[in-house]
Design goal:
The protein is an alpha/beta fold. It has 13 helices and 15 strands.
Amino acid sequence: MHDALFQPLQMGALRAKNRIHMAPLTRGRAAEPMFVPNAMMATYYRQRAGAGMILTEATGISREGLGWPSAPGIWSDEQVEAWKPITKAVHEEGGLIVMQLWHMGRIVHPVFLDGQPPFSASATTAPGEAHTPQGKQPYAEAREMTLEDIRRTIHDYRRAAENAKKAGFDGVQLHGANGYLVDQFLRDKTNLRTDEYGGSPENRTRFMREVLEALIDVWGADRVGIRLSPNGDSQGTDDSNPPATFGAAAKVCEELRLAFVELREPGPDGTFGNTDVPKQSPLIRKIYSGPLILNSDYTAEEAVADIEAGKCDAVSFGRPYISNPDLDKRIAAGAHWNPNKDVPKSWYFPIPEGYIDYPTLEQEQAEAAE
């Protein structure tokens, strides 16, 4: 019944053993010390190595680009060394692990920047409140990036890609979604620039292209992917003409021959904002000829249907992988999926509970037999 999900998939140089991929999931466990991965994270990723491809939680490329309490980074030697046991654990289980590279742009609160404002494509302010070590606080207005800021940030992406290679990852994914820095450049509500990085959809994709080119210099295009969210409002980042904007972005992905493109297309109750905008994946599928991964609120049956219909080549599952470390085995067996518990505390609170204590199907069956 689910055979389509258990076929291997070649994505450039990356070979996934199945098409049940693990979507990036911020989990907030890099707590002691902040931004440095730990042994608990190695257990978490090892447990989920049955996925065709693990896309790591969003990982900060620089101190100024990371504004989430207890999220991991990849800019320091200490972080590189701390990631090595994690990639080793996944590889020991026969898994594939790709690091998602993250710069939050205007979503970084000044508390993370010694009181300085964050930067973005333009001087705009995100709606709502930021998660900070001192609780939720209103976002601050970002300052518009100078050309020197842009060059320096692209260098930070390149260094992060080099560090990911040192740490033993199989490739990297650029986080271009959910209202963070790359997305802030892509969409015209947050990109008000009048230089070569603003204006037309082609100009607004320039920053994304230049970052991808830096990643490709390090890894080769066959080990570089991107995540996009070609939907409506995402943390206040929106666009007046999604087909034009994301058609231009898909053209960049095709021209650079990326290993894969992942699209987050939530329904009306999405995590990062509601959307009733028509899905752009059919348009992107026509422009980008490489492997396409779709994400958001899929059941196994829906994933099979979309793969068999040719709408995508794989599906990445997010929240189901929080509470089902062996999701691939559960799908293969037609077994139940455990619900998430104590949400959202268990998503982000830096404790083992709600993180590495979910039972596998085999453990459940063994307990039931006792």
